[in-house]
Amino acid sequence: MPKHFFVVFIILFAANGFAQNPITKEKDSVKKVQDSIKKTKFLKQLGNGFFPFNYFDADLRYLIKFNQYEGFRTGLGGVTNNQFSERYRLNGYVVYGFTDKRIKYSIGGGFRVNKPHNTWVNLTYTDDLQETGSSTFLTDKRFFTFFEPRLLNIDLFHRHITKSIALEHRFSDNLLSETQLAVSNINPTYFYNFILDEKSYDSFDISTAKVSLQWSPFNNVEVSEDNTKIIKEGFPKFTLQLTQSFKSILGGDFNFSKLDFRTIQQFNHKNDAITNITLAAGIAGGNAPLTHLYHAYPNNITKETILQRFSVAGLNSFETMYFNEFFSDKFSTLQLKHYFRPFNISERFKPQLVLISRYAVGNMKSIDRHQGISFNTLDKLYSESGFEINKLLLGFGLSFAYRYGAYHLPALEDNIAFKFTFNISL
């Protein structure tokens, strides 16, 4: 009897084990799927430039940067996420420059008024620096760039204290818009006077209204409440922005208007080569100070030798054009890039050759209004050509560019830019 009981016990135990095994496997399978979803979501957030926490996503753009005026610039920033609220959000940052020894910060918040079109009203107060002559599109901030190499070489900044209210609206997955009303107090960090009506301004107030549209009709995108992630880029794509500054409204000192435009076309060839064409243009009319004009994306430091100028090549900048060399109240640039198929030397070593040509033209009226800083105009065609060999080691490569044509300089080495490149994607 005991022997039979022992046999029956073993059979029942085994049967029970086999009966539970599918459930155990199912639980393990569900856990693996959940872990995979969490990992995918985490990497997606990281790719958008955020490190997610429970109620707050840290913005990776503010961790560490470097430029010629602030030196190292480091700080923290971020935005609340949907676990905090799906209708309200808070955002901000605080950074410190080790060379200028100043704290910069921004604080803001927003509330959503329409979920299907991701329509938000945002309020922001910012005390920070901005590059003089830069013209950024409001809609560009929706897309994260892991590394912005051109920032390393910038030295001409103006301080701005800006109070703004903005309306974000997504007309469709491929058409984004942002409208902004802002009041800014501008203080250049360099010696500069803007002469207008026999009055000299070394600081001034600007009241502006901006409307920005970004249309990417052939993009395949993934849209969340806080970010628009491009799954597959389609071309061409277009960005348009209109700026109007008002005198005597909310304390504004000047009347001027600006129209900025950019289009990008790309051809993907059958042999895996790529040709990219970028056309950008801008025009400013009225009484605009130098801080709100155009510099045509220079990226060359004013130093004597080629090796002293060795730095990081930008993504869409003129590598042989010196900083603060040209300013314009109207300009256009054309950039041509041809990416050859990567060389398949080994599984991990696949460098890529890129041929590049860039052209710029522009002009400026009433140059004598801008006192304290000397610069040239681009009334003749500026030309440079060169090549890059990317992904030689850990995302690093080399870049060479040569300046020729109307703005060719007498000393040969002053026309040459030799730099390294950095290309990485998450």
Task: Explain what the structure shows.
By secondary structure, this protein is mainly β. The protein is built from 1 helix and 25 strands. The chain has an 18-stranded antiparallel sheet that branches. Strands 11-10-22 form a 3-stranded antiparallel sheet, with no helix packed on it. The longest helix is centred in the first third of the chain and has 46 residues. The N terminus is likely disordered.
Net shape: globular
Main sheet summary: 18 strands, antiparallel
Q: Distance N terminus to C terminus?
A: 68 Å
Share in helix: 10-25%
Poorly predicted spans: 1-20
Compressed to H and E, one letter per element, the order equals HEEEEEEEEEEEEEEEEEEEEEEEEE
- How many helices? The count is 1
Structural class: mainly beta
Question: In a nutshell, what does this entry contain?
Answer:
With 426 residues, this protein is mainly beta. The protein has one helix at 2-47; strands at 50-52, 56-59, 64-67, 71-80, 88-97, 102-114, 119-131, 157-172, 175-188, 193-196, 199-201, 204-215, 220-223, 228-232, 237-245, 256-268, 274-286, 298-300, 318-322, 330-339, 352-363, 370-371, 382-393, 396-405, 416-422. The protein has an 18-stranded antiparallel β-sheet that branches. The protein has a 3-stranded antiparallel β-sheet with strand order 11-10-22, with no helix packed on it.
Main features:
mainly beta, 11% helix, 426 residues, 18-stranded antiparallel sheet, globular, 1 helix, disordered N terminus, three-stranded antiparallel sheet, single chain
